[in-house]
TrEMBL record:
Segments traversing the membrane: none
InterPro entries: Adenine_glyco, DNA-3mA_glycosylase, DNA_glycosylase
Organism per entry: Pontibacterium sinense
Signal peptide: none
UniProt keyword list: Metal-binding, Zinc
One GO BP annotation of this record: base-excision repair
GO molecular function, one term: DNA-3-methyladenine glycosylase activity
Name the record gives this protein: DNA-3-methyladenine glycosylase I
Residues holding Zn(2+): C14, H27, H181, C185
Length: 208
């Protein structure tokens, strides 16, 4: 994908971040940089599931409302949500009021607890699916990958909901499991440096 968007600093960026004013900060400071914090990982996977059928701009605009509604996406708290919480959230105009997706977040919080109990952390488990750089297609030319399909299948087998391969791939892009910034994007080299220094959860040292 070509980099057709030039930021206010004159530097080229991924074309998509010129699609809305709020995308620039998200692109420059979050998207594609490695994350090992379980709460952030859980939040992003939930938000990606809410995005299904919608635009990321819609979800990003409502992100603070989602955080308030789901206790900051602390899955240990969300796992205790009841049917009354579901009904409360269905009345919350600040989020996407989709019963199936709301119930999926609560279900997935419980599955997250189980995964942490078995594997130590969400980060340690998710980062097992980091692809080798040489196996990646050209940046931003794919919507799924062999790894996103594998992780999606594994999560579904454990009972997670709304975690299809496309949702999981978008999650992997955003959380830095791959560096999918366009080749001419100013953030690609920045992400590469951070990824090189990043210590993979469960590993003795960082990878490339």
């Amino acid at each position: 994908m070509t980099t057709e968007f030039v930021g206010p600093d004159g530097e080229p960026r991924c074309r998509w971040c010129g699609g809305a004013p709020e995308f620039l900060d998200y692109h420059d400071n979050e998207w594609g940089f490695p994350v090992d914090d379980d709460q952030r990982l859980f939040e992003k996977l939930c938000l990606e599931s809410f995005q299904s059928g919608l635009s990321w701009r819609t979800i990003l605009a409502k992100r603070e409302n989602f955080r308030a509604a789901f206790n900051g996406f602390d899955f240990n708290q969300v796992a205790d949500f009841t049917n009354a919480d579901v009904e409360r959230l269905l009345l919350d105009a600040g989020i996407v009021r989709h019963r199936g997706k709301i119930e999926a977040v609560i279900n997935n919080a419980k599955r997250a607890q189980e995964l942490v109990e078995e594997h130590g952390s969400l980060a340690a488990y998710f980062w097992r699916y980091e692809p080798k750089p040489e196996d990646l297609p050209e940046p931003q030319t794919a919507s799924t990958s062999e790894e996103s399909v594998a992780l999606s299948k594994a999560l579904k087998k454990m009972g997670w909901k709304f975690v299809g391969p496309t949702t999981v791939f978008a999650f992997m892009q955003a959380m830095g499991l791959i560096n999918d910034h366009a080749k001419g994007c100013v953030s690609r080299s920045k992400a590469a440096v951070i990824r090189k220094r990043f210590k993979r959860p469960g590993a003795s040292s960082g990878g490339s």
